[in-house]
Amino acid sequence: MKRSIFVLLISLAFAGYTNAQNEVDALRYSQFYLNGTARSAAMGGAFGSLGADFTSLSINPAGIGLYKASEFTITPSVFTGKANSTYMGVASEDLKYNFNLGNLGLVLAFTPKGSSGWKGVQFGMGVNRLNNFNNRIVMEGYNAKNSLLDDYYNKAVGNAPADLDAFDTKLAFDLYLLDTLGGLTDYISAVPHGQTQQSKYIDRNGSINEMVLCLGGNYNDKLYIGGSLGFPFVRYFENSTYTEKDIHDSIPKFKQFSVKDDLETTGSGFNFKFGLIYRITDWVRFGASVHTPTFYTMHDTYSRTMDAEFDTGKKEPSDSPKGKFDYELTTPLRANASLSFIISKFALISADYEFVDYSSARLRSGTYKFYDENKAIDVKYTAQSNIRAGLEFRLAPVSLRVGGAYSTSPYRSSLNDGSRISYSGGIGFREKGYFIDLAYVYSKSGEDYYLYPSVPEASKVNYSNHNIMLTLGVKFGGKN
Fold first, then answer.
1. In whole angstroms, how far apart are CA 457 and each of 6, 84, 129?
2. Structure pTM?
3. How far is CA 8 from CA 1, 258, 323, 356, 380, in A?
4. With contact defined as beta carbons under 8 Å apart, do 40 and 441 qualify?
5. Cis? peptide before 397, omega within 30° of 0
């Protein structure tokens, strides 16, 4: 039974194998791992009930209600992503550096006149980084059992050469990696029994950043409410090269072939967040917020180039058409609950819990129904719990911070573990009109990566990310 589930998941995972839009993309653009400010990052992102930090506007917009003074922040960040893979018993690794802006924000705080009970009204606008896609992956190993061309062969059989797919089987046919045998709909593969050195190199770039417009208020220093409009925008670029080589010279006439893929995805969307924070006592706060789904409009461009080399020499590369497609993505709703304890002016302890069900994500288009892809989302993904916690010691004017975050796996089956854990720490220096915060975040996660649908085993990929963040902030007006 477990084997049948495995086969179903793999086949669904590659339902859009020559297409650029599938359930993998739906998960990629639905997951958020907040960068934001250095103070928030150092405390694990647990700011759902603390507030008064620009990152909280993307977690619980009621956090804006705790601002007593106006504030401007900017957070440059240096990110290092390292990927270790093991494929067919062979270990490989690569890494990538990225300089980015984790946060840029402005909050304006106003004190209403009169005795209505509203002690503060705040407006905020700016950008928080929600996800970083930068990494490089190298996978390499000897496969004695089968080849990517086996999948192409199975797809080609029964189709005349004129009807082959322009993004895979037609390219292989043009290069004589597939050739007709006996009839126009029967084929033979240049690599019929595997026995090749297989490798894949993937280079990814991009991010999700969210522009936030937020309005909040403080009622009697007891209840804080806030709502925000979020406008996330996506930039994702992936270039990959897959290669098979006859390193033992055991396949007649064949030397090697490679498949190069280029994908560029851009998109923009909108969502609404509403939240509240209630001060139960002077030292206990409770927070809750709801994020509507994000409604994205996405645009993909993609292409493929294939080349081959035989004993007789290299063939001219064969290129696919330039693929373009517009579609829509609806990400899951998110719900957050948080609790924090303020121990006089000496320390803060905070914890957040977030629930998100990735099986509710949906792909849509006016020209394509995405039936198989949305079915794959239902079968493959499940609800995820995100837990964040942080601690701050205040030794004025210096603060010391530690934190951590854990996300359960979004995968329904235990065949792939997509859980993620982060450890963080930092230091801050605050004076009346300005502050400087420094944070370091270490995150690790893993995935099973299948080079193609019928590959006999997955490549085990482990990611370890390092992020150093520096927030510079200026306070003005109100109570600093």
1. 11, 16, 35
2. 0.91
3. 11, 27, 27, 24, 9
4. no
5. yes
Q: What is each CA distance from 99 to 54, 79, 102, 207, 384, in whole angstroms?
A: 20, 6, 9, 12, 29
Q: Would you list the DSSP string of 149-202? A: HHHHHHHHTTS-GGGS-TTTHHHHHHTTSEEEESEEEEEEESSTT--EEEEEEE
What element of type H or E holds 84? strand 70-87
User: Whose CA is closest to 4, among 413, 455, 358?
Assistant: 413
The answer to whether residues 259 and 241 touch, using CB atoms and an 8 Å cutoff, is: yes
In angstroms, the Cα distances linking 414 to 8, 9, 30, 330 are 14, 11, 20, 25
The separation between the first and the last C-alpha atoms of the chain, rounded to the nearest angstrom, is 63
Write the DSSP assignment of 423-448 as a string of letters.
EEEEEEEE-SSEEEEEEEEEEEEEEE
Minimal CA–CA distance to 212: which of 130, 126, 305, 114?
A: 126
Place of tokens 């490089």: 136
d(CA 435, CA 392): 15
Q: Report how far residue 386's alpha carbon sits from residue 45's, in angstroms, rounded to the nearest whole number.
A: 11
**8 Å CB contact between 463 and 83:** yes
Cα 4 to Cα 8, 10, 109, 404, 454: the distances in Å are: 6, 10, 59, 37, 14
- 72-96 pLDDT, tens digit per residue, is 999 999 999 999 999 999 999 999 9
For 318-368, what is each residue's pLDDT tens digit? 999 999 999 999 999 999 999 999 998 899 999 999 999 999 999 999 999
The verdict on domain 2-140+196-238+255-301+325-476 having CATH code 1.10.10.10 is no
